Amino acid sequence: MSSAQANRIADEKNLDLVKISPTANPPVCKIMDYGKFRFDAAKKEKDNRKNQKTSDIKEVWLSMTIDTHDLETKAKQAAKFLKNGDKVKVSIKMRGRQQAHASLGIEVMNDFFALVAEVGEMSKKPLTEGRNIIMILQSKK
Questions:
Q1: Where in the chain is the domain with CATH 3.10.20.80?
Q2: Burial of 129 (0-12, 13-18, 19+ CB in 10 A)
Q3: Which residues are 59's β-sheet partners?
């Protein structure tokens, strides 16, 4: 039908004439309440955002001279983060002469990973970046 006739029908029903596919030949239009349509679309988008799970990055600091019990305590905390679906950034800050022995820090990182291996996996292996050694863990699928 013609656009004038479609506009007249929409005005009679107190609704809007909305172009669905303006590039089609002839253009496809629909008679609807456009304000309600926009409101429903915004509400649906808000609900989708609310139900979406975001993954945070939690950080756990270790020391190169950490004792085994302290390492286990930190590993339990990291495992709790991983079970919640968060990523865990494990960091060691080297001080003074510790920088000459970065391999010891990487061993501590590997021991730490062995404690949380059942709930997490490495997404970034331990790397030395300046004075820090950093490893990133993520939960297993």
A1: 3-51
A2: exposed
A3: 89
- Distance between the two ends of the chain, CA-based, in angstroms? 55
Per the CB < 8 A criterion, the answer to whether 19 and 32 are in contact is no
Q: 21 in helix, strand or coil?
A: strand
Contacts of 123 (CB under 8 A, 6+ apart): 87, 136, 137, 138
Count Cβ neighbours within 10 Å for each residue of 87-105 and write b for 16 or more, e otherwise: bbbbbbebeeebeeebeeb
Q: What is the token pair recorded at 102?
A: 């970065």
pLDDT in tens, 95-139: 988 889 888 999 999 999 999 999 989 999 998 988 999 999 998
| Residue 77: Cβ-neighbour burial (10 angstroms; 0-12, 13-18, 19+) | middle
Superfamily name with CATH number, domain 57-139: Translation initiation factor 3 (IF-3), C-terminal domain (3.30.110.10)
Could you please state the CATH topology (level 3) that the domain comprising 3-51 is classified under.
Ubiquitin-like (UB roll) (3.10.20)
Mean residue pLDDT across the chain: 90
